[in-house]
Amino acid sequence: MDPETTTPPSPDERTFALLAHILQLFTGFIGPLVIFIIKRESRFVAFHAAQALIWQAIYFVVTMVGLVAWFVLVFGIIAMHSNSGPSKGPPVAVFIIFPLIWLFFMTGWLVTFILGIVYGIKANQGEWAAYPIIGGWARRLALK
Q1: Is 129 in a helix, a strand, or coil?
Q2: What CA–CA distance (Å, rounded) separates 82 from 80?
Q3: What percent of the chain is predicted at pLDDT more than 90?
Q4: Contact between 55 and 112 (Cβ < 8 Å)
Q5: Pairwise CA distance, residues 63 & 65, whole Å
Q6: Distinct helix (H) and strand (E) counts, the chain
Q7: Residue 88: how many CA atoms within 13 Å on its side-chain side?
Q8: Helix-helix angle 92-124:43-82, to 10 degrees
Q9: Are 91 and 81 contacting, i.e. CB atoms less than 8 angstroms apart?
Q10: Sequence-separated (6 or more) residues with CB below 8 Å from residue 90
């Protein structure tokens, strides 16, 4: 039985689903996790909270990979620059890499912000709107 063909979600369920998306903007994975645990019996709320949780897990992994890459690049540049003789100031690569890393992190935050707002509104309207790619994973997790 498809959950979308059953009775529409109650106003309480829609509010909790909205909160699962919005709280990820302020609490990361903690808000959606609490809602997922507390409202597990509601498939609608569990689906929306699972989407936010999966997105936060992916965002965390990507951020950690970006941080590791940033540290490797910075320390690599420092090591190469310190072996080049007398200091002439910071290397030019720092002025190229730092803005790119900053742009990478800001893009991730912006995507999280857009997903939280757009899908929070859809959840509050009672839609079973799925995030691109990860929506199917969340549906399987919530409908177990």
Answers
A1: coil
A2: 6
A3: 60
A4: yes
A5: 5
A6: 5, 0
A7: 7
A8: 180
A9: yes
A10: 81
* Tokens of residue 31, six digits: 């808000």
Residue ranges making up the domain that contains 91: 3-142
DSSP state of 8: P
* C-beta separation of 89 from 65 below 8 A: no
Task: Tell me if residue 10 falls in helix, strand or coil.
Answer: coil
Q: Are 140 and 49 in contact (CB under 8 A)?
A: no
- Count of domains in the chain? 1
Name the phi and psi angles at 22, rounded to 5: -70, -40
Query: How many degrees, rounded to 5, is the angle at CA 140 between CA 122 and CA 16?
Result: 35
Q: Residue 126: pLDDT band by 50, 70, 90 thresholds?
A: very high
Tell me the pLDDT band of 33, cut-offs 50, 70 and 90.
very high
Cα 81 off chain centre by: 36
Question: Across the chain, which distance is largest between two alpha carbons, in Å?
Answer: 73
Q: Which among 133, 123, 112 has a CA at the least distance from the CA of 29? A: 112
Amino acid at 29: F
Taking Cα atoms as reference points, which of 138, 140, 128, 115 lies closest to residue 59? 115
